[in-house]
Design goal:
Helix content is 39%, strand content 17%. By secondary structure, the protein is an alpha+beta fold. The chain has two domains: 112 residues, Beta Polymerase, domain 2, CATH 3.30.460.80; 317 residues, Cytochrome-c3 Hydrogenase, chain B. The strands form four sheets. It has a four-stranded antiparallel sheet with strand order 1-5-4-3, with helices on one face. The protein is globular, with a radius of gyration of 22 Å. 47% of the residues are buried.
Length: 501
C-alpha cells in the first residue's frame, strides 16, 4: 500500500518515512480501510507544531499483523472546519472528540462532539465539567437518575446519568474527566528513565503489567534494543498472571452484585494468593517494580517456579468447582443471561476491543493478531463468545483464567537462562516514531512516542482499552432495569483513570 507505511508492533521508524497526505485523502484512506472487519483504529491523535497540527492515524491490519501508519498536516488556527472520520465510521468518535478538546480542531459533521477528559491544557477553558451537555428527552413520563461522581464504592470518580421510564433504562450517558492527572504530559517532563517507568506503572492500577510492558517495549524500540529471551519470557508470565488475578477478582465482584455471597467469598479468597505471588516475585502485590526497561530485574528463579506451581495446584480445583457450582444455579443464570447485551454489530460499529469485543463475537486480541513478547511462539487462540451479555463476559473470564494458567505452566517448565546476552541500553534515536501494542486483561493497550532531533520525547500518547469500551456499557444497559446496572457495569469493569489520562 503506497499511501500508508506498513510497520510492525514495536518497530521504530523515521518520522520522514511516514506519509503526509492531503486531509481529504487521509480521511478517505483510513475510513475506507476500516470498512473491512479485519482493520481497526488503534490510535488517532494530533501533534501540535506551531500553527499546524500533524495528525497521525494507526490502523491495525489483523490479517497480516501490520499497522498502517499515515499522517496529515492541518491548520491549527480555527480558520476552517474539517469533515470528520466519525461521520463515516463511528469507531473514530472518541479520538476526534479528544483531538477537538485538546487542540480546538473543528469538525463540520461530527455526530457527537462532546468533551472526553477536561484536561487542564484543553483548548477551550470555558468548557467546564459542571456544564457538560447531557442528552435530554423532554417528557412528563420519564425521569432522570444521576449516580456519582462520588461513587458508592471505593473506586474512582465518574458520573452516570440515566433516563428512565419507570425502572427501564432508555438512555445512559457516562461523564468522566474528573482526575486531571496529565499523564501524557508528565512523560515529557522527567529525564530519568526510572521516573517514566514508574509513571507507566501508575496509568491504571489494575493493569500495571499491561501498561508497563507497552512502555518497556516502546522505549527499547526507540533505543534499538533487542531484549533477550529471559526478559520476554518473564514478561509473558507476568502478563498472564495479572490476567488471572484480575479475572478472579472480577468473578468475585460479579457474584457480589447479584447477592451470591458464596461465590463472592470464594473467588475473593482465591484472588489473594495470586496477587501474593507477585509479592513473592517482586515485593509488590500489584507487580510494581517487576518490569524494567532493558533488563530482567526479577528473574524466574526455581523458587518462583515452585511458588507458581504450588499456587495453581491449590487454586485450580477450588476455582473450577466454585465456577461449576455458580453456573448451574438458576438464581445466578437469571441475573446473568440476556442481561446487558452488546450485539456483534454494535461492538464492531463503536470499535470495541478486548474482552468486551470477544464476548460479542468480535475477535480483537493483540496477542493473536500483532504478537509481542513470546506470544507468537505459544501460539495463542482467543476465547470468543457470541451472546454479548453479562454471562458471556463472565464465561470469558473463566476460560481465560484456565488458558492463562496453561500458558504459565508451559512457560515455567522451560525457563531460559538469566541474562541471555542482553546488550546495554543506549539513548533513544532522534526523529523517530514507535507504536507499542499489548493485550492487557481488559483489552488492547497502545503507547505511541515521537522523538525530536536530539532524541528527546516530543510526544507520548497512551490509549487504555476503556477509551473504546465505555460507550459499550452505555449501550448494554438500554432496555434493562436500572437495578441491573451494577452487574452490567461490573461485567465490563472499565477503568476511570485509564480514560482520564
Amino acid at each position: 500500500m503506497t499511501n500508508a507505511l506498513e510497520i510492525k508492533n514495536n518497530q521504530r521508524v523515521q518520522l520522514k518515512d511516514i506519509p503526509v497526505l492531503p486531509y481529504e485523502e487521509f480521511l478517505e484512506l483510513n475510513t475506507n480501510l476500516t470498512k473491512d472487519f479485519y482493520f481497526h483504529c488503534v490510535n488517532y491523535f494530533a501533534w501540535p507544531q506551531g500553527n499546524q497540527l500533524r495528525l497521525f492515524c494507526c490502523i491495525a491490519d489483523d490479517t497480516t499483523g501490520h499497522i498502517l501508519l499515515s499522517s496529515s498536516v492541518v491548520a491549527h488556527d480555527n480558520s476552517r472546519e474539517y469533515p470528520s472520520f466519525s461521520a463515516k465510521n463511528l469507531a473514530f468518535h472518541v479520538f476526534e472528540r479528544e483531538i477537538h478538546e485538546n487542540t480546538g480542531l473543528k469538525y463540520s459533521d461530527h455526530p457527537w462532539l462532546k468533551p472526553v477528559r477536561y484536561p487542564v491544557n484543553r483548548a477551550d477553558r470555558n468548557s467546564d465539567i459542571s456544564n457538560y451537555p447531557f442528552y435530554q428527552i423532554e417528557s412528563e413520563e420519564l425521569h432522570e437518575v444521576g449516580v456519582g461522581p462520588i461513587h458508592a464504592g471505593i473506586i474512582e470518580p465518574g458520573h452516570f446519568r440515566f433516563i428512565c421510564n419507570g425502572e427501564q433504562i432508555l438512555h445512559l450517558e457516562i461523564q468522566l474527566g474528573y482526575q486531571h492527572r496529565g499523564v501524557e504530559q508528565l512523560f515529557l517532563t522527567p529525564k530519568n528513565l526510572l521516573q517514566r517507568t514508574v509513571l507507566a506503572e501508575s496509568i491504571a492500577g489494575d493493569t500495571v503489567i499491561g501498561h508497563t510492558t507497552a512502555f518497556a517495549g516502546l522505549w527499547e524500540s526507540l533505543c534499538d534494543f533487542t531484549p533477550g529471551e529471559d526478559i520476554l519470557h518473564a514478561r509473558t508470565i507476568a502478563s498472564e498472571l495479572e490476567r488471572v488475578a484480575i479475572h478472579t477478582g472480577d468473578l468475585s465482584a460479579i457474584c457480589a452484585d447479584i447477592a451470591y455471597q458464596l461465590g463472592n467469598s470464594v473467588f475473593g479468597r482465591l484472588r489473594t494468593p495470586v496477587i501474593n505471588t507477585f509479592q513473592k516475585w517482586c515485593g509488590c502485590r500489584l507487580a510494581k517494580g517487576l518490569i524494567r526497561v532493558g533488563k530482567n530485574q526479577y528473574p524466574v528463579t526455581p523458587y518462583m517456579v515452585d511458588s507458581l506451581t504450588q499456587l495453581f495446584d491449590e487454586y485450580e480445583p477450588d476455582t473450577y468447582e466454585m465456577y461449576d457450582r455458580m453456573k448451574t444455579l438458576p438464581s445466578v443464570l437469571a441475573r446473568l443471561e440476556r442481561t446487558g447485551i452488546v450485539t456483534h454489530e454494535q461492538a464492531e460499529r463503536i470499535g470495541c476491543v478486548g474482552m468486551t469485543a470477544r464476548a460479542s463475537g468480535l475477535i480483537r486480541d493483540i496477542r493473536w493478531t500483532h504478537p509481542y513478547l513470546i506470544y507468537g511462539q505459544i501460539p495463542h487462540q482467543p476465547i470468543v463468545k457470541h451472546h454479548g451479555d453479562v454471562y458471556s463476559r463472565t464465561q470469558i473470564r473463566r476460560h481465560e483464567i484456565s488458558q492463562s494458567i496453561r500458558y504459565i505452566r508451559d512457560l515455567i517448565a522451560n525457563v531460559p537462562a538469566e541474562g541471555n546476552g542482553n546488550p546495554e541500553l543506549s539513548s533513544p534515536q532522534p526523529d523517530s516514531f514507535v507504536i507499542s501494542l499489548t493485550e492487557g486483561w481488559r483489552g488492547e493497550i497502545c503507547h505511541c512516542a515521537i522523538t525530536n532531533d536530539t532524541g528527546e520525547l516530543a510526544l507520548y500518547k497512551v490509549k487504555d482499552p476503556s477509551l473504546h469500551n465505555w460507550l459499550a456499557l452505555a449501550l448494554a444497559v438500554r432496555n434493562n432495569d436500572i437495578s441491573d446496572f451494577p452487574i452490567c457495569n461490573k461485567s465490563f469493569n472499565l477503568s476511570y483513570c485509564g480514560n482520564d489520562l
